Amino acid sequence: MSKQKPSIPKGMRDFGPVEMARRNYIFTTIRDTFRLFGYEQLETPAMENLSTLTGKYGEEGDQLLFKVLNSGEFLKKVNDTAFKSGETAVLPLLSEKGLRYDLTVPFARYVVMHQNEISFPFKRFQMQPVWRADRPQKGRYREFYQCDADVVGTDSLICEAEIIAMIKRVFAAFGLADYSIHLNNRKILSGIAEVAGAAGMEAELCVAIDKLDKIGRERVEEELYQKGFSQEAVAVLAPVLEASERSNGEWLDFLKAFLANSVVGSTGLKEVEEVLSFLTLLGEDTRFLTLDPVLARGLSYYTGAIFEVKVSGVGVGSVSGGGRYDNLTGVFGLPDISGVGFSFGVDRLYDVLDALNLFPEAQNEGTRVMLAHFGAEERKQAMAYLAAFRRAGIAAEIYPDLAKIKKQFNYADKKNIAFVAILGAEELANGTLGLKNMVSGEQETLSLEEAISRLQG
User: What is the structure's pLDDT at 243?
Assistant: First the structure.
């Protein structure tokens, strides 16, 4: 048999111990904030019925769904049934399931299925992988983790203000100081379309305008023409689409005038102002917050506030985003349940923190002390010490083989183990151990109790 070169699918990655320590640092930081704000954790299956997923993300989103082929056993059962009935076997649908595209739609499905078990408003967070059949590139993978926080069963804009506060808290914990939280409202976009004489075409406007920072104004205008917008409509949109350095206050003043004759647009603008008011009541300023009326976000289920967060100087794209959805549960039979949520993209956050060298030097994970030994008898005693270290809550391991002491030290050094506890004939006879600090090189002879105290300090 010829040897096969090992590989993994494009857009997928392995994570070694260093990467996992850093990823767990990200998870822990985000999880602590979610819990501080009253969110409870749950999980949903990797696979959902396609009927659950399709039609929720817009046409472009549906094209990126990973569909799961029906199993051979399923096909065999269908064909056997057809054979026994004397009918011609018909190939059934090849796929009835798919890998989840995000965590929000499965959450909506969960809420409907468990509506009698939960109390509204219901605040939950999830930290799980999602899959998208996208073209892999820097900062964009086919399998990646999201950390979602959503609250359903309330239309209070306090929730939007708290989302902004959570983002700011997490980024402060990471040491990120150059980023922007872009805020808009889908009602504002509907109002913009209405003012342009294209009422009812906000979906087409959102799809096109969402690409503004990727393809530029000229190509966005071309796409608008292709989607049926008139030259007059595009001309009216010009002051919105043009690159602008307007401050938040200047945007508010501009939009008040621009949307004056649009009820839906003015409603969206008032909601943005109310979010800013609640944010002030939470003791937060508007630093890092940017009002962005051309922010659209591609997902079709958003109906109110929308968020997107970008870190400057790393070229990674958005690292967080979300928004309000007024009736996502309605398609599953539970209408008129408003919700709002957002998500951190763990993989992009990892790339950002790595590029900016913001990971802590030590994530307090891994082995604290390794037991090294000079022979079989010393190894026996080392195993007793090993158990004692672990009972004391100290991460410890023993070099399992009878090997030269240099080889044991090399192993500890490569694993960046901070301390090595050494047992030789003298230590065995005296009931002590040698404790070497692998960073400073200092070594001292201690009793087991003293060593435990030192390692816990």
Answer: 64
- E strand segments, 389-429: 396-398, 419-423
Closest C-alpha among 190, 192, 213, 211 to residue 202:
190
Residue 328 neighbours by CB distance under 10 Å: 26
Condensed to tens digits (0 to 9), the pLDDT of residues 61-112 reads 888 999 988 876 555 555 555 555 555 555 555 778 999 999 989 999 999 9
Angstrom distance (rounded) from CA 396 to CA 264: 62
Q: Give the strand order in the sheet containing 179-185.
A: 40-41, 122-131, 143-152, 339-345, 318-325, 305-311, 179-185, 289-291
Distance, CA of 20 to CA of 274 (rounded, Å): 40
Position 373 scores a pLDDT of 97
Q: Which amino acid is at 10?
A: K
**Torsion on CA atoms 277, 282, 283, 284, rounded to nearest 10:** -70
Provide the β-strand partners of residue 398. 371
User: Which residues are bridge partners to 344 per DSSP?
Assistant: 147, 320
Q: What pLDDT digit, counting tens, does each position of 363-401 carry? A: 556 899 999 999 999 999 999 999 999 999 999 999 999
Instruction: Give phi and psi for 327, each to the nearest 5.
Output: -150, 40
Both structure tokens of 390: 């672990």
The DSSP code for 92 is: -
CA pair distance 65, 457, nearest whole angstrom: 51
Instruction: Using the Cα atoms of residue 149, residue 295, residue 311 and residue 289 in order, give the sign of their dihedral.
Output: negative
The pTM of the full predicted model, rounded to 2 decimals, is 0.84
